[in-house]
Amino acid sequence: MSAISSAAAAPARPSMLGGLLRLLRVWGDTIATYWVRREAIKTLRQLDDRALRDIGLSRCQIETAVTGDFDLELVRIR
């Protein structure tokens, strides 16, 4: 028969340093995502209307397409 130690069953408490590192990682990821999206929007805005139409976008849909809020079911294929 084996005994289970009470120390092994105790929940781990997150340290303050671990929480701070997680917060910094989330903050860094958020900033990086923001800059990547802004660069994608800038690149798409440089395209002419015909090129945008070829990829299924109009100029007013650029930001929603980049952020992922673009609903393909609402778009009509012409």
TrEMBL record:
Domain YjiS-like: 30-63
Pfam families reported for this sequence: YjiS-like (PF06568)
InterPro entries: YjiS-like
Domain of life: Bacteria
Protein name, as recorded: Uncharacterized protein YjiS (DUF1127 family)
Organism in which the protein naturally occurs: Bradyrhizobium elkanii
